[in-house]
Structures are given as C-alpha cells and as structure tokens.
Amino acid sequence: MKKILTLFAVVGLMAFTSCSDDDNNNTDYDTISEVFEVSGVNFNSANSFSTLVDLNPVIYESDVILVYRLSATENGRDIWKLLPDTYFFADGTRNFSYEFDFGINNINIFMDGNNLGTVEPLLRTNQVFRIVIVPGAFSTTGKSAKLDYSDYNRVIAKYNIDDSNVKKLN
C-alpha cells in the first residue's frame, strides 16, 4: 500500500511541477506582439492599387492584425492613422479608403474607391504603413478590453512593444 501511495505522490508531484503559470505579475512570456514597417508603397493601376505583404513566419489564426498609415509628422512626431481610413470630398461623399485584409501568410493593403487614379499623388505614392500583430491570447484574457486601437502609441504601450527598432519589410 505504501508503494502505491508513493507512486501516486510522485506522479502527482510531476504533474503539478510540469504546469507553470508564467502570466503572473502581468508578465507574459509565451505571446509576443510585433510591429513591422512597410515603406515606399505606391498605389497605381499597374498593381491594382494594392500591395501584398508576406508574413514570415506565418501568424496564428487567432492573431489580430492592426495596420496604421503614416499620415503626417507633427513637431517631429509621427502621426499614425488606423485602417480602414476613409477620405471624403468637400460635399461629404466618399472619395476613397485605405483598407486591408489578411490571412496567416500575408496582408493585402489596398485603396478602395472610384477613379483612384485621380487621387492626388501625395496620397498614393511613397506611403508608409505599420503592421502590429497582437496575439489572440490578449483578446481572450481581457488584456485588450477598452483599448483605443486607433491610437498607435497606446497600442504600443499596452502590449509593451519596443518600436524603436521596427522590422522593415519589403
């Protein structure tokens, strides 16, 4: 009987010590948020006003992708706008939008609208985008509750992303 109890104790000890909770103290070691930058993007009829960004390695199906466009620089600080981002004519009708869709292998960033060739070149050429990958675990644990995703700097701060050395993609 003592041998059986000892066996159960050893098996139980191994089972409990093999499990770990590495998410204590708000430290998360098994999910990593990332940020990438794609620059020099030109939208034109030759590329159907879109650019395809390959992801290597691929992302998990549960991950969330946020895409921001560099819209301006103010006092030396970059201003990032969350996509989709819609532009309107003076009369209030829609001119065009920057939009995106994604799968586990790539992200398609594109312009949508009528007569995209007439959109001023400043808004079609040499565009810069930041892609933020947020692990799906954040959405299931409440860590992203009530976060304003339109504010790039808050997103970076919330997920402890060091964007001082952003990975450049082609």
Number of helices: 4
Which structural class do you get from the secondary structure elements?
Answer: alpha+beta
Strand order of the largest sheet: 4-3-8-1-9
Q: How many strand units?
A: 9
Rounded radius of gyration (Å): 22 Å
Low-confidence segments, given as residue ranges, are 10-30
Summarize the helix and strand pattern as letters: HEEEEEEEHEHHE
State the share of residues found in helices, binned by percent: 10-25%
Identify the overall geometry: globular
Largest sheet: 5 strands, mixed
Give the number of domains. Answer: 1
Task: Tell me the strand percentage band.
Answer: 35-45%
* Terminal CA distance: 67 Å
pLDDT averaged over residues: 81
What does this structure look like?
With 170 residues, the chain is an alpha+beta fold. The chain has one domain. Helices cover 19% and strands 36% of the residues. The chain has 4 helices and 9 strands; from the N terminus they run H-E-E-E-E-E-E-E-H-E-H-H-E. It has helices at residues 2-18, 121-124, 136-140, 152-158, and strands spanning 34-41, 50-54, 64-74, 77-82, 85-88, 94-102, 106-113, 127-134, 167-169. The strands form 2 sheets. It has a 5-stranded mixed beta sheet with strand order 4-3-8-1-9. Strand 3 and strand 4 form a beta hairpin. The radius of gyration is 22 Å and the shape is globular. The termini are far apart. The model is unreliable at 10-30 (pLDDT under 50).
Which labels suit this protein?
170 residues; four-stranded antiparallel β-sheet; 9 strands; 36% strand
Task: Describe how the helices and strands are arranged.
Elements: H1 2-18, E1 34-41, E2 50-54, E3 64-74, E4 77-82, E5 85-88, E6 94-102, E7 106-113, H2 121-124, E8 127-134, H3 136-140, H4 152-158, E9 167-169
Parallel strand pairs: 1-9
Antiparallel strand pairs: 1-8, 2-7, 3-4, 3-8, 5-6, 6-7
